[in-house]
Amino acid sequence: MLLLVRVVRRSVAVLAISALAVVPGFGSAAPGDEARPAGLERFYGQQLHWQPCGIENLDKAGGECADVQVPLDYGRLDGRTMTVAISRVKAADPARRQGILLANPGGPGGEGLDSIDLLGDVLSPEVLATHDLIGMDPRGVGESGRSPRCGWPVGEMIRSAGLDPLGFVHDTVQSAGMAAGCLIHDPEQMRQFTTRNTARDIDVVRGVLGEPKIDYFGLSYGTFLGAVFTQMFPERSGRIVLDSAIDPDRYWEGLVQDWGPADERALDEWAAWAATKDDTYRLGATPQLVRATVENLVRTAARQPIVVDDFAVDDHWLPFVLHGMLMNFRLNEKLADVVRELADAAGGPPIKARAPWLSAIVSALRDGEDSTLAQIACGDVGVPRDPGWYWRNIEETRAGQPVFGAMAGNIQPCAFWAPPVEPATVVRNTVPALILNSTGDPRTPYAHAVALHQDMSGSRLVTLQDVRIHMTFRPGLSTCVNDAINTYFGTGTLPVEDTTCYADQPSQ
Question: Quick one: which of 11, 90, 296, 309 is 20 to 30 A from 243 by CA?
Answer without folding.
Answer: 90
